[in-house]
């Protein structure tokens, strides 16, 4: 992977070698906000990947909680939870060689005592913070997150703990912090379904959020796979992928198709004409 300046939209693109696939895109304005999360099963490869992006992001995070098959089969994500020596190797290698902060994310182990023990070992590697997802590997997303077990980790550590699990409304941010004592909160599905979950005024209707997301995707030339994934998550939560809209998203091959599906052809044309003309093309 190599990085290059994308002059058309004023961003830095990290492109997969041998292809033109943009793996990651960021910009200077986001330098102190973006945490780059990696999945890894090897300390040396983790360092190689982190060194490519570390100067353009605020911190590097290692995902040690993902239970999905693509992570587990590659020895990544939650597959690391029962390999404390490998966890130590990965985190200490990153800490020793990177100038930016290093964090990681785990999920609950079989017992709260086991989780706390692992969290303490992780803290000793020198990471700046630890995110804890309040479910075990075998738990389903519909199973309630165990906020009390996150609280056990918070009580045992001196570094900041980031609580994750069952945050779907703005009020949940205060509730999970009060229940766990965590320093901050991570939200995943709630943000995918409706990004206005972060608004103190309450959530905007998902149709409005979806349309704004489509326009932002066009404006920033977002990767089509990423755009489709987010739209499908929203539709699956609020509607159904089997309806015409969902089928249209699935069939879309590029942002032009998405623009047509949502009646944003004029905006798509306007953005592209101005993008190229403003750069002397």
TrEMBL record:
It comes from the Eukaryota. Keywords: Flavoprotein, FMN, Oxidoreductase, tRNA processing. InterPro entries: Aldolase_TIM, DUS-like_FMN-bd, tRNA-DUS-like, tRNA_hU_synthase_CS. The keyword tRNA processing applies. It holds the Pfam family Dus. Transmembrane segments: none annotated. Residues 20-238 form the DUS-like FMN-binding domain. The keyword Phosphoprotein does not apply. This is DUS-like FMN-binding domain-containing protein.
């Amino acid at each position: 992977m190599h990085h290059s300046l994308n002059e058309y939209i004023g961003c830095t693109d990290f492109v997969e070698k041998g292809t033109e696939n943009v793996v990651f895109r960021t910009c200077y304005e986001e330098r102190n906000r973006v945490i780059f999360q990696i999945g890894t099963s090897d300390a040396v490869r983790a360092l190689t990947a982190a060194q490519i992006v570390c100067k353009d992001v605020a911190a590097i995070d290692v995902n040690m909680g993902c239970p999905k098959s693509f992570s587990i089969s590659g020895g990544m994500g939650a597959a690391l939870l029962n390999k404390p020596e490998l966890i130590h190797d990965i985190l200490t290698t990153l800490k020793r060689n990177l100038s930016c902060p290093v964090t990681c994310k785990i999920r609950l182990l079989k017992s709260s005592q086991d989780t706390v023990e692992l969290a303490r070992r992780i803290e000793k590697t020198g990471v700046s913070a630890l995110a804890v997802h309040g479910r075990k590997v075998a738990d389903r997303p519909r199973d309630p997150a165990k906020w009390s077990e996150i609280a056990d980790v918070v009580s045992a550590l001196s570094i900041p703990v980031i609580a994750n699990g069952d945050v779907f409304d703005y009020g949940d941010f205060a509730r999970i912090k009060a229940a766990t004592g965590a320093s901050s909160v991570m939200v995943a599905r709630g943000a995918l379904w409706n990004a206005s979950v972060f608004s103190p005024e309450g959530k905007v209707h998902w149709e409005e959020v979806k349309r704004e997301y489509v326009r932002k995707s066009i404006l920033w030339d977002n990767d089509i796979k990423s755009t489709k994934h987010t739209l499908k998550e929203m539709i699956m939560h609020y509607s159904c992928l089997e309806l015409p809209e969902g089928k249209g998203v699935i069939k879309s091959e590029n942002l032009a198709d998405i623009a047509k599906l949502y009646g944003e052809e004029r905006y798509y044309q306007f953005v592209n004409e101005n993008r190229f003309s403003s750069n002397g093309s």
